């Protein structure tokens, strides 16, 4: 089959929270009699064998990430992902999933991700019956914002609500503007609060927030916030390392600006995970699972883009 739009890699998440490659093939959506419903089928490009047969469940939460990725949980502790070679193919299958679930394809998550038992436990509490109200994004509110972000981490439902509020209000960019102001004013207390806030937002484990935080516009300010760990006598100099010490060496010439940007982004996000963030506790490990996936699938996309670039050069 020559349709590259539908070309995908199938991944499953193993017990160590690492993604295993289950093979490359072509995806289609079709009605499967045995499953009694519209299903996603992936047939291996090597021999046509069935790599995936998954019914599109009306109640399953599907997530669309990074333009070319669809992720969902088939059962408890069994996560699946389709990584598309092309955005157009991802959009096509995403529309099919949304059609089955009666959702608008503009959404990035088709269902509420909150655990049902957690939802039942909290739904009677008035403070969780609506979106979290964020304090105004001002210097004198940074301590209040830090306390709010820290307080929600133990509750899945409140993490979801805070993430949604941050996303809806474009709050992260406002916070990073305050970071620049705090640095200019040498406001150490404010910088310490911003460290706690940005670290807490990373632990919300939301791909939609990562897309903002790790954009070209924002990522160096995010790194800057994470330099001001209150437990350290002096701030770290991570930005200096990333901009002056670390050198990008091209083994092969890279002329595609999007590919180059993706490589730089992946290196910086990997640096945040491996060098800047402290080793997570058992309690915190699951908070970074989406960050790990973000890095992994960025690398998958880089390899795919390199292959496309090589094909173009040879043709």
Automatic annotation (TrEMBL):
The molecular function GO annotations come to: protein phosphatase activator activity
**Can you supply a Gene Ontology BP term from the record?**
DNA damage response
Outline the extent of the PP4R3 EVH1-like domain.
5-102
Instruction: Name the SUPFAM superfamilies for this protein.
Output: PH domain-like (SSF50729)
Ranges for domain Serine/threonine-protein phosphatase 4 regulatory subunit 3-like central come to 144-309
Q: Name one GO cellular component term.
A: nucleoplasm
Q: Which Gene3D superfamilies does the record cross-reference, listed alphabetically?
A: Pleckstrin-homology domain (PH domain)/Phosphotyrosine-binding domain (PTB) (2.30.29.30)
Top-level division of the source organism's lineage:
Eukaryota
What Pfam families is this protein classified in?
A: EVH1_PP4R3, PP4R3
Report the sequence similarity comment from the record: Belongs to the SMEK family.
- Protein name as catalogued: Protein phosphatase 4 regulatory subunit 3B
């Amino acid at each position: 089959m020559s349709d590259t739009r539908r070309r995908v890699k199938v991944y499953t998440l193993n017990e160590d929270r690492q993604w295993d490659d289950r093979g490359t093939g072509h995806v289609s959506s079709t009605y499967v009699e045995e499953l009694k419903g519209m299903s996603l089928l992936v047939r291996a490009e090597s021999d046509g064998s069935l790599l995936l047969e998954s019914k599109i469940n009306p109640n399953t939460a599907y997530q669309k990430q990074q333009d070319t990725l669809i992720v969902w949980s088939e059962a408890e502790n069994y996560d699946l992902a389709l990584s598309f070679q092309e955005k157009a193919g991802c959009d096509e299958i995403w529309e099919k999933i949304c059609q089955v679930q009666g959702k608008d394809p503009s959404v990035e998550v088709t269902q509420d991700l909150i655990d049902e038992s957690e939802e039942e436990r909290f739904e009677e509490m008035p403070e969780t019956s609506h979106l979290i109200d964020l304090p105004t994004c001002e210097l004198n509110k940074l301590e209040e914002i830090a306390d709010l972000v820290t307080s929600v981490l133990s509750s899945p439902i409140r993490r979801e609500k805070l993430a949604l509020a941050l996303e809806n209000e474009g709050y992260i960019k406002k916070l990073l503007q305050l970071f620049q102001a705090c640095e200019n004013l040498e406001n150490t207390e404010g910088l310490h609060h911003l460290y706690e806030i940005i670290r807490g937002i990373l632990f919300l484990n939301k791909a939609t927030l990562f897309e903002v935080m790790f954009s070209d516009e924002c990522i160096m300010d995010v790194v800057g916030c994470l330099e001001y760990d209150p437990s350290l006598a002096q701030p770290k100099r991570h930005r200096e390392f990333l901009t002056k010490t670390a050198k990008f060496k091209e083994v092969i010439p890279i002329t595609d600006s999007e590919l180059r940007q993706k490589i730089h982004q992946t290196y910086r996000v990997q640096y945040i995970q491996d060098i800047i963030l402290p080793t997570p506790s058992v309690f915190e490990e699951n908070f970074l699972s989406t960050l790990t996936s973000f890095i992994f699938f960025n690398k998958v996309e880089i390899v795919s883009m390199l292959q496309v670039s090589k094909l173009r050069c040879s043709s």
